[in-house]
Amino acid sequence: MQNKNIVLLINAHHAYIRHINGEEKKYPEENALIFEAISDTYIPLLNMFAALERENVPFHVAMVFSATLCSLLSDSIIQEQYIEWLDKRIELGKKELERAGDNIKLSAAVKFCYEKANRDKIDFTEVYEQNLLRAFVAYVKKGYIELLATAGTYAFLPHWADMPEVINAQIETGLYACRHYFGIKPDGFWLPYLGYKPGIEQILRAYGFGYTILETHGILYSDITPDDGIFYPARCSNSLSVFGRDPETERDLFGIDGFSTKNSYRDQNRDIGFELTPEQLAPFISEGDIRVPTGYHYWNHATGSGAAVYEPSAAAEQIKEDAGKFLDRKAKKLDAALDLMRGKNPVLVCTVDAATIGQKWYEAIDWLGEVLRQAASRNIRITTFEEILEDQFSLQKIHPYPSANSSDGYGEDLLDSSNGWMIRYLHKAGERMIDLAERFPSDTGLKARLLNMGAKEFLLAQSGEWPKMLHDGQSVEYVKKRFRESIIAFTTVFDSLGSNTVSTEWLTNLERCHTLFPWMNYRIFSRKK
Question: Distance between CA atoms of 163 and 406, rounded to whole angstroms?
Answer without folding.
Answer: 22
